[in-house]
Design brief:
This protein has 326 residues and is mainly α. The chain is built from 16 helices and no strands. The relative contact order is 0.12.
Length: 326
């Protein structure tokens, strides 16, 4: 198991390097430092002197990947924008935002509101979707199954933005049950998170439940299920003891990969509900054209996604003995 994990981690290193190189090319080759300076300074204050000053203050006056003006080979490679801005991300040195805030400190502080929102949505949503899918599979080819699928398709067709706006209007503006937006620390955060969590669960029920139903129905047609029924096992025992267990592998594919992404928060939910998480942090940085923050969040997202893939592979070995033997 240990050798398997080490091998998967080593496979992830070239992927992370490639993502970093592509991100660097998008930020500094397609969009040059001069373009970044013009966007930050605004049309009224753009002068050649202002651009030079802006680049010098933020370290964008260096060459991109190779500094031919330096004498030593180390300085030629290190005194560049790539070494100063992108290579440092590998040691999680994110630097500072355009308004001089420490990005690492902001990530640590905003991670917890994102988790407070995303973890309940993930856990409650997973339980609700699996239960609903099992219910439709148990009553397959009945009116309950038919209307359940219709409901799933209808919920899939509705935008998440509609759920957010509709939930805020009904629960907050009409009924005054919860605050329409905002956030507070400690236990007071619960009253601000109830509505976003409910909306997050409801918006994901349609697609996930329909997918899980398909997985369960596919497993119910296999030979081992017919053998279990021939032995006299009840349909409930077959569904929960055999079908659910063997459908865990594809379920884990979608579930475990999502776990690291919980740290990044929900972009729409955090923005509309005023939750100071990483999602709203990223949206605010994009709107403010804060490239340092956007670049850091792209890197963090890449790292977390690779961690999710590794966790998925590890979870496969726990639920499928064949993979463990291989």
């Amino acid at each position: 198991m240990f050798a398997y994990i080490v091998r998967r981690v080593l496979y992830a290193i070239p992927i992370l390097i490639g993502v970093n190189l592509i991100t660097f090319a998008l930020f500094f080759v397609v969009n040059t430092p001069d373009d970044m300076a013009r966007m930050q300074l605004g049309a009224k204050r753009v002068t050649p002197e202002a651009i030079v000053k802006w680049k010098a203050e933020r370290g964008y006056d260096l060459p991109l990947v190779w500094n031919s003006k330096e004498e030593s080979l180390f300085d030629k490679a290190s005194r560049t924008i790539f070494a100063q801005k992108s290579a440092k991300l590998f040691i999680f040195d994110f630097g500072y935002s355009e308004d001089k805030r420490d990005i690492a400190t902001e990530i640590q502080a905003r991670m917890w509101p994102s988790l407070a929102l995303a973890v309940p949505v993930f856990l409650v949503g997973l339980a609700v979707c699996i239960t609903f899918a099992l219910l439709m599979a148990f009553f397959r080819a009945t009116y309950l199954d038919f209307w359940g699928v219709v409901l799933c398709v209808a919920m899939m067709s509705i935008s998440t933005l509609f759920y957010i706006i509709g939930g805020q209007y009904i629960a907050s503006k009409l009924w005054h049950l919860v605050p329409i937006s905002g956030y507070a620390g400690g236990f007071d955060a619960a009253r601000f998170l109830v509505l976003p969590v409910v909306i997050g669960v409801i918006s994901g029920v349609g697609a996930s439940s329909r997918w899980y139903r398909t997985l369960f129905l596919e497993e119910m047609g296999r030979d081992y299920v017919r053998t279990a029924r021939a032995k006299g096992l009840s349909e409930t025992v077959v569904l929960f003891r055999h079908v659910l267990k063997n459908a865990l592998i594809p379920i884990l594919t979608g579930a475990v990969v999502v776990i690291p992404l919980l740290f990044l928060g929900s972009l729409l939910a955090e923005s509309f509900f005023g939750i100071p998480g990483l999602g709203s942090f990223t949206i605010d940085a994009i709107q403010a054209q804060d490239f340092a923050v956007v670049r850091s969040m792209v890197f963090v997202g890449s790292v977390l996604y690779i961690v999710g893939l590794i966790l998925t592979d590890i979870s496969y070995t726990l639920v499928d003995p064949r993979i463990r033997l291989e």
